[in-house]
Specification:
The complex is a heterodimer of chains A (about 170) and B (about 130). By secondary structure, chain A is an all-alpha fold. Chain A has six helices and no strands. By secondary structure, chain B is an all-alpha fold. At the A-B interface, helix 1, helix 2, helix 3, helix 4 and helix 5 of A face helix 3, helix 4 and helix 5 of B.
Chain lengths: ~170, ~130
Amino acid sequence: MSNPSIPTSSYERTSVRYWLLFALIGALAAGVIAFCGINFLATRDLGRMAKAPNGELEWLRREFHLSDAQFAKIATLHSAYTPVCDEMCRRIMEANSKLDRLVSEKREVTPELEAAIREAGSVQEDCHKQMLAQIYRVSAQMNPADGQNYLRLMKSRVIQPALSSDTAVRAATE
Amino acid sequence: MMARLLWPKKAEGFLGTGCFTERMDDDQLRQKLAAWEVRPEIPPDFQRNVWQKIAVRESKPKLPLFGDWNISWLRMPRLATCAIVLGGLAGTGLGLIESSQANSRNWKSLEAKYVQSIDPYEQLRTY
């Protein structure tokens, strides 16, 4: 008795070829559709957050498990700190530009250059104080464990890098 | 003789051979059978096809653990369906991996954005 699934005629061989082609194209199409669909659905939420203007606050809420009340207070603190941070930016740029210009112009340490160095240092000190105060205020609004985690993260991302190497001149020229 | 008197019409089909209506002795029966020739019509590539099928069957590995597989389920529509399902699963798996990496990148960028929002030096660095 012959095996009906083994093609022996040319018509059957052609039919097998069409089925194989259909299987290949179908598998590729299914793979691409599944890939794009899953990618879109799984990244939609965070993608939207990343593009939103205050996405970083939403990140803070999720990362440190803030309640609505905690989030509202922290958002208020953040809004109040933003103009302070902008002012710090302006003062740093001004002090560093002045210092950079004087360092390029002078050939010895003059009183003017000394004053510019002191000013850049003073601005840096003010900036660190303001940042640290803000970090402590925010962490105080969180639950104790999350507050500790927040402090640890801010220490590694903000405080330690600021203290380790950057000078005022380098910050202006980079 | 009685049969001929009662049913005078000639018998047709296998009854026409007379084997079942006439009483024969062994010699006559033997002669009748010897006279009966069968001439089958064999297609020209019959032998080739048979050997081809034998070769295909012998080349397929047997899995005694699962018993003899019912070869009928490997028909093309079912094979195509399996291929499409596997393609979908592979796409889903790759999509999950890629989306996980994309989410991780987005999460890190949001963290960096928050740090920038409170650190003036970080703002200047990326300005």
